């Protein structure tokens, strides 16, 4: 949430629509996202905003 400035509910809504990487389960009650997955998602958003083809 810190890296994206999105709320928890927004992140999970994006995950449900396959628009954000799925988390990795760490324990029964904790999840995390690999940093590279978040970095790639952020870069993709920047590229899309700048009209860069994927």
Question: Your description of this structure?
Answer:
- With 54 residues, the protein is mainly alpha-helical.
- It has one domain.
- Helix content is 44%, strand content 7%.
- A two-stranded antiparallel sheet has the order 1-2.
- β1 and β2 form a beta hairpin.
- The mean pLDDT is 93.
- This is AlpA family phage regulatory protein.
- It holds the Pfam family Phage_AlpA.
- InterPro entries: AlpA (IPR010260).
Annotate the secondary structure layout:
Layout: H1 8-16, E1 24-25, E2 31-32, H2 35-49
Antiparallel strand pairs: 1-2
Short description:
The protein is mainly alpha-helical and 54 residues long.
Features:
AlpA; two-stranded antiparallel sheet; mainly alpha; 54 residues; AlpA family phage regulatory protein; single chain
Share of residues in helices: 40-55%
How many beta strands in the DSSP annotation? 2
State the order of secondary-structure elements, H for helix, E for strand: HEEH
Q: Which residues sit in consecutive blocks of at least 5 with pLDDT less than 50?
A: none
Distance between the termini: 24 Å
With strands numbered from the N-terminus, the spatial order across the biggest sheet is 1-2
Task: Give the count of helical stretches.
Answer: 2
Computed over alpha carbons, the radius of gyration is 12 Å
How much of the residues is beta strand, in percent? 5-15%
Number of domains as seen in the coordinates: 1
Main sheet properties: 2 strands, antiparallel
Mean pLDDT: 93
- Shape, principal axes of CA atoms: elongated
Which secondary-structure class do the elements indicate?
mainly alpha
């Amino acid at each position: 949430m810190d890296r994206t400035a999105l709320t928890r509910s927004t992140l999970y809504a994006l995950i449900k629509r396959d628009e954000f990487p799925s988390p990795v389960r760490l324990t029964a009650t904790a999840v995390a996202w690999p940093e590279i997955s978040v970095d790639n998602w952020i870069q993709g958003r920047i590229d899309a905003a700048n009209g860069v083809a994927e």
